[in-house]
Design a protein that fits this description.
about 200 residues; mainly alpha; 10 helices; about 75% helix; globular
Amino acid sequence: MTIARLLDHPGFAPELLALAAVEALGPSARDWAEQLRSTYPEASSDGLARLATRRFVRLAGAGGATSALAGALAPLAELTSVLWTQANLVLHLAAAYGRDPGHPDRAVELLVLTQVHPDAESARTALDAARALDGPGDAPWPRVLEAAWRLAAPLAAQAAGWLALRLASRLLPGAAVLAAAAGDAAAAERLAARAITSYRSPTG
């Protein structure tokens, strides 16, 4: 269903993927938090957040290293890995701080925290438009290109480095793998810091 909607409306790819992530990943994040709270009733929200952060920073690094081995498809493979891991990270942190990871508001927060949208108002407006989609769209190219750029926002800072990494890897085997792992892990740590700051706040 999500793939069909993405193909029909590629201009709303970030919003459709955020909605799909909350629906698909939210329940497992909720179960994770509930199980830990049941097993460790004294655990604090910050403690759960540290566990989630360590887990998904590690996964981000592993995903970056694996995607770097994909050759010419490395940027696409990395983008897929980054989006999946970052969505999981945000939803687990939401659950750690007592927010329902399956609630529609998490899609808004996901788009803002990953810097696809600058604020909650613009994210909510775009999500409302994505939910209202019905049938194939005309997919105007400016909208599609804008969506592609927003979707790739998590990797924007690394885009220029891929050519340099590929050149360096010819001289130093494994350089691209190490750099991708370190870069994706650092990006996940920055996202975790933003999410924790937001979810700690009573109005976050």
